[in-house]
Amino acid sequence: MVKEPARILVVGGGYVGLYTALRLQRKLKSELRSGRAEIVVVTPEPYMTYQPFLPEAAAGSISPRHVVVPLRRVLDRCKIVIGEAQSIDHAKRVASVTTLATEDEGSDPMELTYDELVLAPGSISRTLPVPGLADHGIGFKTVEEAIGLRNHVIEQMDIASSTRDPALRDAALTFVFVGGGYAGVEALGELEDMARYASRYYHNLKPEDMKWILVEASDRILPEVGAEMGRYTVRELRGRNIDVRLETRLDTCEDRVAVLDDGSRFPTRTLVWTAGVKPHPILAATDLPKDERGRLKCTATLTVDGTTHAWAAGDAAAVPDVTADEPGKECAPNAQHAVRQATVLGDNIVASLRKQPLKEYAHRYAGSVASLGLHKGVAHVYGRKLKGYPAWFMHRVYHLSRVPTFNRKARVLAEWTLSGLFKREIVSLGSLEHPRAEFELAAGGGRPKESS
């Protein structure tokens, strides 16, 4: 039993934030009912996004609302604050937070005091100073970006089908993806598969009319599945007429022309940037110790090194891998570790409050799975290498088991079952991004300029 009242502040509503808060509300039921404990979750969105499903959401295999988990429903014993932490003074145990009402109120950020801090803000896209990237690049970290990209790809096919300008048609049908990690490869694989299927419904488009280009700065893609499976993935993609450029960088994308450092030039209306992530900016606005990459220095018990009452896990934390053979190795910043770290983190906070010993996080990496489109995939799990349909099936089974709540599991499984019985949906709902356009036109305001 917790002897002294404690407010636990969780910053972030992603994997670590959700699972930690979920673990805490299960372990502290009596304390939460009696008021001896309070859990406050600060998150910019009222939902957690299960990112491994973003490629399938972009391809239309899963409904967008089933890729997200509503925090208020799942964390019903926690206080959810929709906002962003601007700074944290751990010495004073105070976090400065802006909410959705801050700007409308014209007020200063609110100050939240806490007794225990869990920093789990995740990461943001790591961009480079590439000319034109900020103007024309599309990210792939949120469900909004995934659905926006799906609408955009179908819209480009509509443009290509209706134009008489060969240069515009060529640019509309050229899709450039920068980054050969999970996000880039899976997004490209799923969207190419979807576009190939959709082309049968256009009277003047064929799959071979489209150019799909993957640009990767290193000498291989999908390093998590191993060198052999990475080479297989390159062969599989090239077999689908996808241009895979290894050891190649994007120099510029000004004026909607992607220029690579090997001299290639591709006029394109679609440039997807998935070239890595970096720590969330809130980490720099704290007085907690950080490593050379800007992540929080953590111990194996998931406490922030050299401090008390501060905890972290996931992308924001540099957690030592106690199962590694070589000293100094850290856990990879991926969902496999984040979900498991959150369970240990929640248990350790409860143990700390109850003056009990903490346990170390130890998990030997099981392997990785990746989807390359419908019925296509690669996997390297517990030393076994799979490809094609078996790997794709394992990808689906694994992530179905990992997505939070039985409700979401049932809905995703139902959608997969129905998609196997009926044809794909290939409609673009790009107008969702401009919901007031028709009313503004009717009211005499004119139609907003489209961004595609």
TrEMBL record:
Gene3D superfamilies xrefs: 3.50.50.100
Residues covered by the FAD/NAD(P)-binding domain: 7-342
MF annotations from Gene Ontology: NADH dehydrogenase activity
UniProt KW keywords: FAD, Flavoprotein, NAD, Oxidoreductase
InterPro entries, per database record: FAD/NAD-bd_sf (IPR036188), FAD/NAD-binding_dom (IPR023753), NDH-2 (IPR045024)
Keyword Amino-acid biosynthesis recorded: no
Superkingdom in the source lineage: Bacteria
Family: Belongs to the NADH dehydrogenase family.
Protein's name according to its UniProt entry: NAD(P)/FAD-dependent oxidoreductase
Organism: Streptomyces triticagri
